[in-house]
Structure formats: C-alpha cells, structure tokens
Amino acid sequence: MPRVTRAGTWRALAAVSVAALLLAACGGDDNKNGGAASGQQTYKLAFVGPLTGPNANLGINIRYGAEIAVDQANSAGGDAKFELVPFDTQGDPAQASTAKDKFINDASIRGVVGPTFSGETRAVMESLQAAGLVMISASATATALPDTVPAQTVFHRLVPGDDVQGQGVTDYVTTRHDAYLAPFAAAIARHVPFVMMSRTFEPPGFNVKKSFS
Question: Which end of the chain has the lower number of beta carbons within 10 A, N or C?
Fold first, then answer.
C-alpha cells in the first residue's frame, strides 16, 4: 500500500538533498548528530548510494551534506525529529536492487536521498513508485530517467539532465572567447569540430549515448 508522505517530511527531504549536493561539491565532512527532544516523533530518510567501493567518495560527501541538513532541521525544533539511515550500494544497480527491499519495506522511512547514480536509480524506480516512496537524487543525470516508469510521481533530482548540461556547456564554451576560455574553445575546434559545426552531427562510428552513458 503506498505510504503517505507528510508535507513537513517532504520539505525536510528537499532541504537534506540540497545540502547533500552542496557538500558533495565542496567535499566537506562536517557531521554531527543530536538527540531527540521529549515528545518528538522520528521520521527516517534513507540515504541510498555508494559508501564503499571505487565510487565511495561521491556517496560519502553527499551523505555528509544530508547529515548536516538533518542536524539543522532537528536543531530548529518542532514536533518531528529526522534521522538519516544509510544503505550502501557501491553505486551498483544490482546492489541497489538488493538493498531496496530493506528501505522500501521499512514503514518508518518516509523518503529517499538518492540514489546517487543513474543506473541504480533505474534499478529501483519501479519499486519506489509502487511503494509511493519519494526520492531526490543529488547526482543522477541520465536524460531519460523521468520516463523510466510511465507516469511516475516519485522521481526528483537537484541537477539538470545530461541533455541540458551538455547543451549548456557547448553554448558557453563556443560563445565565450575571453582570455581564460579561448584555449579551451580552440582545442575543441581542433579535436572535436562536430561540436562547433552542429550539435546533432555524429562522426561515423561514434555513438554519443554509448560513449557517455
């Protein structure tokens, strides 16, 4: 049965995810945890992403940011206390598929910070939708993620998709020619001329999606 997400929990989930994104960018590690005041009800948020393995650095920094946001929300007082519960996937879709039952079947978990990568997000999206468990990723950028499950309502992310980011970088580099970017733009013109000529042309044998997914 789909769970009901309280408005306050949703706002906290968004705030936690924003902090996670910012701290991941900075690489910070401020991490403190406070106790619950008497009479507060605890709402858990799952962190889903790599905490071990080759991609652990990104996941750990996102988790640190989320923990800071949780601390700030708890320090603000109110009738709710938030707790972040980590689920390590190593960034692997197969491990995410295994771990999902642990947080989806836990009725005390009201939202998900993550998953970190696009592949693991695809792996759990259908189950999250079925459970009505909202997620916000700080870093899953695959363009088609919102369409993984038709008419889904649980997927959110804090960064633009790859299509928007790629277009933005191309526009910026090919139109700004000050002293700082001129060598970069010239290098692109020499080595990747199709970017300068046309944003839709692909050289023979070059598959953009396969190369950058």
Answer: N
Can you say whether residue 78 is alpha, beta or left, with left for phi > 0 and alpha for psi between -120 and 50 degrees? left
Give Cα 158 to chain centroid, integer Å: 7
Q: Tokens representing 154?
A: 């649980």
End-to-end Cα, the chain, rounded Å: 34
**Interval 82-93: pLDDT, tens:** 899 999 999 999
Q: What is the arrangement of strands in the sheet containing 155-157, beginning at the earlier edge strand?
A: 80-88, 41-49, 109-113, 135-137, 155-157
Instruction: Outline which parts of the chain fall under CATH 3.40.50.2300.
Output: 7-159
Q: Residue 40, by phi and psi: left (phi above 0), alpha (psi -120 to 50) or beta?
A: beta
| pTM to 2 decimal places | 0.68
Which of 26-40, 50-64, 70-84, 104-118 has the least mean pLDDT?
A: 26-40
DSSP state of 28: -
